[in-house]
Amino acid sequence: MTRFVHTTVRKAASKLAVALLHPAYHATGFCNLCRRRTLFVCDVAADRWIRRCCRCRSTPKYRGIVHVIESETGERIAHFVRDHRIYELTTTSPIFRMLRGHPNYEASGYFSDLPFGEKLTSFYWNQDLQNLSFPSESFDVVISSETMEHVRQPWLGFSEVHRVLKSGGFYVFTVPFRPNRLTQPRVDTSGEEDVFLLEKVYHHDPYRPEDSLVYTDFGADLPDLLRPIGFDTQLVRVLSMQCDIHDDLRPVNVFVAHKRPSLRQSSVSHP
Question: How many domains does the chain have?
Answer without folding.
Answer: 1
